[in-house]
Each structure stands twice: as C-alpha cells, then as structure tokens.
Spermidine/putrescine-binding periplasmic protein (Gottschalkia purinilytica), 359 residues
Amino acid sequence: MRKLGKKISSIILASLVLTLGLSGCQAKSKQTINDKNKETLVISTHDLVEGMFRKNVFDPFEKKYNVKIVLELGNNYNRFNKLREGENKPDLIILTDHFAMEGIEDGLFEKIDRKNIPNIENLYDIAKEPLGKDYGPSHTIASYGLIYNPNEIKEPITSWGDLWRPEFKGKIGLSNINLAGGIFPLLIAAEQAGVDIKKDEDKAFEKMKELSENVETFYNKNSEIEGSFTQNKVTITDGYSFFLDTMKQSIPEAKWIDPKEGSYAVMETINIVKGTKNKELAEKFINWILSEEVQKAQALDKVDSPTNKNVKLESTETEGVVYGEENIKKLRTVDWKYINKSKKRWTERWNKEINPKGI
C-alpha cells in the first residue's frame, strides 16, 4: 500500500512545488505523432503524469476517439509562464487552482460549454466550478493540514492554534510563501488573530511573526522537510494529505491531522487554452477524465483523489486519497483572485518580517 501511496505524492508534488530549481521542470513533448491521419490533442500537464495516466486515461481515450495525445510536461510555474509568454499553445492545460486563476485573469483560457461536459454534474459541488462557471472543473483534489510525530508530542494536536504552543519552539516546519501552499500559514495566522486578512494585514503578520518563533525551517522543497522530519529536527509540519505516506517511510508512526477549524482544499483544474482548434475534442477529454470509470481507476491506483461523487470505494481502498462527501465538504476554499492580487505585496513583507534570513 505504501508503494502505491507514493504514486499520488509524486504527481501532486510535481504540481505544487514552484521553485525554479526543481529538476525536470522544463516543458517538453514526450511523444511524437506517427499517424498523420489521427487528430491530435496536446495536453500541458505535470511531470511524471505520462506513466501514471497512460493506463487509465490516455490509452483508452486514444482508442475510443481514434486520436493521438501529445504531452507537454513540466511544473506549474514553468508551464504557466510559457503559456503566458506565448511559447507554447497546447489544447488543454492542467494547473493547480491558484495558477489557473491567474490564467483566467490573463485571458488565456476558452470558456467551456458545459452541455458538452455532462460529467461535471456528477462532481462534488466544490469541484464543479472552482474558479467560475465559464472555466474548467477540478478533476482531483488534495487537502492541506498537519503531519506530526506522535513520539515527540505529549498533548494531542487538534487545532491550527496549537502551532503557537510554547513547547513547539524550534520544532515546526512550514511552507515558505513561494510554494503553492505557502499562503495558507498567513491565512491561518489571520484567523488565529481574529481578523479578516482583507481588512487587517498588520495583525495577520503580527500573529505570523509570533508563530515564526516556533519555526525551525520555512522549507522551499518537500524533500527539505522530509529530511528534517526524518532527523527529528522537526516534530510538526504542514503538508498535503498525499504526503503522509512519504513521511511514514521513515517514521511509521507519523500521523495526519485535519485541524478542527478545517483543512484547505487544493484542486487540480483542467482548462481549454485560448485559440485551440480542438475545442470539441478537448471538451470530450475533460468529460472523459471526470467519468466515474476513469476516476475510480485512478483512485484505486492511488494516483488521484476522485471528485466524481458517484465513485464508490471500500474502506480498505481509501488510504492515501481524499474521499467521500463528508470529507470533501469539510475542506475550506479561499479567494484565489484576491490572494493572487496580494501575493507580491505579501511576499515582500514576508521576506522582511517573517523569514528575513531565508531559513
């Protein structure tokens, strides 16, 4: 089960890490077109996807519609910037929600015709129109919460507020603000300070400054926090649901906690690129990847957490995935439009006040 569980961590890690130093980040085509009689569909997606999507997603779609899928691979940051700069023009692009919102704001995506994508109606509400009804749905979802080593903690952790407990000084690892999930600690700090960050950034940063006294490291790569956790330099870390299995490889007792205030949803959206000549085929592919059959196969292989509510899994099949209406409803969403507008300002302030040494 652990071996399977690492599949989901590999794919979404490639999605979430934004740093430029990530190996294999340049977008590249992994296929050549051998049959000129076949229509082609070019999909921009994450590194490592080809092997994990080939069996359940790509091969059956190619066979069903007599088409050829060509992949452009890379991480969110580089693929999105290449699209924005006009360096590539895929038909479809899969991006984490906050990058997708930037794409919408920049006018990079076509508006979808939901009549051509009937499987959207089978999704959990959170996934149907995460960034507006005119744009792509979420084909998979992860949650952002806490992972901790119970061997090193006396009192249970139940709340985001527990991160401020004095006994955790120098024992916490948090995402740096340049990561996809790096904005969540600041939002959590605002909530713990009792303010709306849109109305009072100062108190949010003051509370975050208090928390920074407990932070051993603000990590820039998931591999960094994995090493710190393994070496017991860090007892608690923020992270994604799929990353627990990786942590358990070195500390089998590692536990996941959904804080009582709620974990945050991280969604993978699929959008049609502006100007494509294959919009009809692109909509067919979106409908395909949202289908109950495909979503269940991906969940069973521990590649993706299903957003199609018709997918049914046995309790023994849910390890390593976010599953079920009850769990999905608990996830919190954020205003990515406002966050993207504020991110540059917040990052500059973060680097001066919260993490000036870049630790």
